[in-house]
Structures are given as C-alpha cells and as structure tokens.
Request: fold
Amino acid sequence: MFSITASASSTDTVAVFSESVKANFKKYVSLSNKAYNTKNYEKAEGLFDSLVQNSLAGTHFDDFSFKRLGKSRIQLSKIDKPILLITYSSWCIMGKGEIPALNQIAKEYKDKMQIVVVFWNKKNEMKKIARSFDNDIVVCYANDSEQKDIKAITFLKKTFGFPTSYLIDKNLELVDIQKNFVKPENKVNMKISLDFYYHKFNSGLTSLIINDGFDGTRMAGN
Reply:
C-alpha cells in the first residue's frame, strides 16, 4: 500500500528491524493519520498490515535485553526458542482472562517457545502484577531512566505502543507484529474472557511455531 525501503546492516544482507522501522515508520504514520482523520479505519488497518508484512517481517530483530525481577538482564539472543514478546504497562487495564490465558499457553508450549512479557515501568510499579504470571513466563521491565533500555523504548514502546505482541523465531527473525485487539467487556465471565484471549494469542502462535519447523496442526485446530 506504500513503497517499501529495505535497510540492511553493515555486516550482512539481512535487514535489521530497527533500521527498517526508521526507514518506513514515518511514512506509515503520515498515511495512517490521514486514514484515521477521514475515519477510514479499514485502510488504516491495511496500512499497518502492509508495514509489517512488506517491510518488517523477515527482518533480524534487534538483540534487546531487559531487566528481570530479582535477576540479571536477559538477552533475547540467549533464548534458544521462538519468542512471543508482549509489551504492557502496569496502568493499562488487562482483561480478566488475559494473564490466565498466557499462563495456560506458557505451560502447554514451554518446550517449543518462550513467552517474554515486558512492562514499560519501573520495578516498583509492576512488581505486584508480575506475581500473577506463571513461572514459565519471563517477566521483565524497562524504563527511560535506564540507558540500556533506551533503544527498546524508542523502537518498541514509542513506535508500536502497547499492548503489542512480537513473534520472533529462534534465529531472531521477526515473524509478525500484532497490535492490541478489541477486548471483551470486563463484565463477561472468566470462561468467556479466558477463551477469547487463549484463541487470540494461540492463533498468532501458529505462524511462529510453523515458521520454526514445528507441527502447528494442534494449535491451529484449537
């Protein structure tokens, strides 16, 4: 839907995620703002899909590192599995079934993939909610006061906002990006909310698992 600029690193021919964002994001924002201003929401969504699929998918995701609660920083390249990286903020209200759904998926596919959750917060702002996640999920935080977090904040938080999911294969190739989706009303019961989030996250994981060579039949059939 708009021209694509591929940006490769200086050491090889594989485009780097952050460089591709710099090359394409400004034009995407300009076009999507025009679409939203005219209430052409379908076009705006199409522009985002075009940005991801035509200029970001297949790029080498930057080797970001994030601070874990009570532990050292974790480097994405040290995770020898496909990664579902999800960004949140502690003040962003989550659906009642959202964390339970992630916990369930983390247990089911802990041998095939790793879920990493990053809160754009200081440590004391996210400690309480972090306890709700299963031990199979790596829960991290990042904020502007930490120099090592600036690049991630620039190319993830300040570009794609939150909550946002990044699907990354074990070689750090970006498979897909999924923006926050319309949530069910919080007054719905837990089962409905849990089912909603489980299928939303699970449908995205199909492409990640298949991309890494695993059998995605069971996941796609859920």
The CA atoms of residues 2 and 43 lie 12 Å apart. Confidence is low (pLDDT under 50) at residues 7-11, 214-222. The chain has two domains: 12-60, 63-220. The longest helix spans residues 190-211.
